[in-house]
Design brief:
mainly alpha; 9 helices; 0% strand; single chain
Length: 205
Amino acid sequence: MKLIWFCVILIFGFFCWLMLRITLQYLPIDTDVAFLRIKQEYIGMGHYRVAFFAHVFSAILTLIAGFTQFSTPLRRQYPNLHRYSGWVYAVNVLFVAGPSGLVIGIYANGGWSSQLAFCLLAVLWMIFTGLAIWNIRRGDIPAHRRWMIRSFALTLSAITLRAWKFAIVAAFEPRPMEVYRLVAWLGWVLNLVVAECWIRIIKKY
């Protein structure tokens, strides 16, 4: 079990490193680099620009803070760290990453299909996180755990979306917008399916 957990940490750390590299492309603040090069029609809009950078720079914090919630040794040995990192995660999702993701989703590439996918992702992300907090406040730990699993499954879409994009392009070489429309849904819907399967397994034990 320790070996499995070590491998999970290693893989997660690798993807966090990749996410950090993506984030660092925008420092110092640059509006004509990487992804923003195809969003020049929107980057002049103040609310879009604020939302984009808020979302980009909060991604790493959300991933790391959320990941710590699923370490049983950490939760038992350092309950305060578990609690504080949980609040960092929740506040970040509810007031920074979630709302900014919703704004970005409205202007997503790929038309209404992609826009609906990303907006729905942001809304569900905030709802699931809010329900996790509501349940822990009322002392329902099992329900809190279930909603946190669902919430973090959506958090991981930052990684899985890019992984699916790379795999699909490498295998089929489709047109860019076709890929974007597909991964807009695939990047988080499959995560939720896996999360629900995990929740059902937990309930049995």
